[in-house]
Amino acid sequence: MIYFTLIARVVDGLPLAATIQEDDKLSRHIVEYQNQAKQLVCRMTPTSPSRCSLVAGSYVFHYLLDRGVCYLILTEADFSRTKAFAFLEAIQTQFFSEYSAKINTVSRPYAFLDFDAFIRKTQKTYTDSRSSNVSQLNVALQDVQRIMVQNIDDVLQRGEALSALDARATNLSSMSKKYRQDAATLNAQSAWVFYVVLVIVILAVFTYVYFRYM
Predict the structure, then answer these.
(1) For 185-200, what is each residue's pLDDT tens digit?
(2) Among 34, 70, 82, 196, which one is least packed by beta carbons within 10 Å?
């Protein structure tokens, strides 16, 4: 289930549009999660990951960052990440198509609340269990698996910037790549040594046989 959707301008954190799904279980904490969402947007920079999932207790924030606008949703922890990012791509495409000329000029919060109708309509499509055919979604499964997953406490309570998380992930990726390259080099060297030793042994046997029986 998608509990709420927030579209905000990254440069100043201005909320442009939002939709909330009524839910008795979440209603007592909805303000807390809304505040966390706004804090997330305020911590974003041009170097922040373009896509990220942030675990917040029993729920998960998923966001997509595109051309200075953040598209963010809160879902249940077991909600399909493939559907989550397919939904985000759908609203990003439509929102930019309708409002791209106005995004950087508006100063009033929630200036595009009329976009609510499209959000709700699209939300039904991606939360309907009958539309679970992953092959029809725009987001490839392998792409979703590469999206960074972090705990929201790393960003909010510890004050760690999203760009720092991205840098750390990039560093880990580089280390992993270097490890694979080193392993490949070591394997190649081991193979070379093996063949050299094999040739030496063959030559030694050949020499022994030659002088012993010739």
Answers:
(1) 656 666 676 777 777 8
(2) 196
Helical ranges in 49-161 per DSSP H: 81-99, 116-127, 141-145, 152-155
Q: What is the distance between the alpha carbons of residues 38 and 61, in angstroms, rounded to a whole number? A: 11
Which residues make Cβ contacts (< 8 Å) with residue 78, sequence separation at least 6? none
Q: What percent of the chain has pLDDT over 70?
A: 67
Find residue 192's DSSP bridge partners: none
Considering the domain 2-160, what is its CATH architecture? Answer: 2-Layer Sandwich (3.30)
User: What residue ranges do the domains of the chain occupy?
Assistant: 2-160, 162-214
Q: Which amino acid, 206?
A: F
Q: What's the whole-number mean pLDDT along residues 170-174?
A: 53
Cα dihedral: 181, 183, 185, 191 (round 10): -150
Which residues, in sequence order, are CB contacts of 89 under 8 Å at separation 6+?
64, 138, 139
Tokens 């580089």 belong to residue: 174
- Give yes or no for a contact between 35 and 18, defined as CB atoms under 8 angstroms apart: no
The distance between the two most distant Cα atoms of the chain, rounded to a whole number of Å, is: 101
Q: Report the C-alpha gap between 17 and 10 in whole angstroms.
A: 13
Cβ proximity of 63 and 52 under 8 Å: yes
Evaluate if pTM is beyond 0.90. no
What element of type H or E holds 62? strand 59-66
